């Protein structure tokens, strides 16, 4: 099989610099800065409503799709500001993929076509002769190949929830993103499927930069190298209280609020 996904050196870090966000008049994030290093997993943790999903959506320009939504600050992919006028929305989407809470394959489309679905949307050109290899490679990387290799023409909707989520990961990988954003990717899945996705995340982490929102503290510990703890104090916008190596955030956090949260005392 020809290797078609990006070589390691083509991947990149993603960095938020003083990012603030509003829905209408309401400020929900205040000057959040975070470096998410290349080829590793960063977990965003914190109680409900503190702005983790909003922050994640800002990282691939999805926030601006909400009519009342505005933002300030910079997001840098490698050295490039993805909000610069020279960047098109489709550039951001191609380089920075997203996997959502609920698996969202195209149910009537075949497994094969689901994997290639993003190519056209993002203007990624792949020769027809290379498509078979690309599909196989993405399914291997998403940990789904062995289960579907003999039924690539069957509909995506016929797969189990966990398989559908891995299909969505394969679809996201097909456009060769540098970064993969995951918004609670296991929250709709059973423990076995969750473990399978976690394994996939681990396998991918050496080649794609991953940022994952999770409410599951064990999961954050299992999959991430670094963690950022978000919090919105009452009536105030969300921000990062503390970030650093996952071991430190869980084992020796500096801030009492971080310790309380990771030990399940609130949230
Ligand atoms: N489309 C929207 N319109 C208006 N307000 C919104 C919208 N989306 C989110 N918000 C508000 O922005 C704040 C941050 O929400 P966000 O979903 O980013 O938090 P979160 O930390 O991801 O929460 P959860 O863990 O529950 O998913 C919340 O107060 C929420 O009510």
From TrEMBL:
Boundaries of every ABC transporter domain copy: 14-262
Residue spans crossing the bilayer: none
PROSITE patterns: ABC_TRANSPORTER_1, ABC_TRANSPORTER_2
Keywords recorded for this protein, A-Z: ATP-binding, Nucleotide-binding, Translocase, Transport
Molecular functions per Gene Ontology: ATP binding
Listed Pfam families: ABC_tran
Protein name: Phosphate ABC transporter ATP-binding protein
Origin organism lineage: Bacteria, Bacillati, Actinomycetota, Actinomycetes, Pseudonocardiales
């Amino acid at each position: 099989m020809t290797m078609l996904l990006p070589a390691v050196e083509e991947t990149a870090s993603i960095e938020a610099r003083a990012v603030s966000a509003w829905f209408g008049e309401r400020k929900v994030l205040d000057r959040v800065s975070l470096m998410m290093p290349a080829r590793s997993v960063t977990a965003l943790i914190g109680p409900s409503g503190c702005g983790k999903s909003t922050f994640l959506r800002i990282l691939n320009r999805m926030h601006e799709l909400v009519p009342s939504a505005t933002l300030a600050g910079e997001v840098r992919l490698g050295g490039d500001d993805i909000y610069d006028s020279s960047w098109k929305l489709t550039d951001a989407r191609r380089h920075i993929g997203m996997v959502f809470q609920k698996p969202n394959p195209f149910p009537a489309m075949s497994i094969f076509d689901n994997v290639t679905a993003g190519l056209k949307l993002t203007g990624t050109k792949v020769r027809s002769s290379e498509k078979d290899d690309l599909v196989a490679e993405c399914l291997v990387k998403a940990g789904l190949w062995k289960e579907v290799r003999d039924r690539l023409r069957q509909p995506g909707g016929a797969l189990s929830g966990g398989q559908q989520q891995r299909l969505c990961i394969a679809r996201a990988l097909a456009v060769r993103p540098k970064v993969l954003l995951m918004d609670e990717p296991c929250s709709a899945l059973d423990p076995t499927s969750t473990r399978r996705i976690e394994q996939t995340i681990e396998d991918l982490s050496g080649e794609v930069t991953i940022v994952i929102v999770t409410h599951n503290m064990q999961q954050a510990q299992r999959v991430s190298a670094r963690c950022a703890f978000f919090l919105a104090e009452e009536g105030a916008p969300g921000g990062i209280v503390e970030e650093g190596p996952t071991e430190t955030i869980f084992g020796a956090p500096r801030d009492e609020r971080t310790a309380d949260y990771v030990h399940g005392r609130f949230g």
